[in-house]
Amino acid sequence: MEEVKFRELLEQNYTWPALYMFKFICPANNEAIAKLEQLFDPEVAELALRPSSKGNYVSFTAKELMISVDAVVERYRQAQGIPGLISL
Q: Averaged over 42-62, what is the pLDDT?
């Protein structure tokens, strides 16, 4: 989804600051999972990992209080550098 449209949807559907749920599908390798986990502070965010049925991928969910649309978009930008990551 293009960033402008994504920003509009976030503005329409949330009142900031807001609890936001990030969802990713990540290759089931330690390096990719570690990089994704580093984007979130476990003392602030609620993190959940669930392996796929064949064990090739991991579903990663993080719920965190985000201050603004810009903060959400920036977190997705940081995640883009992780090889094989799919943002939902």
A: 93
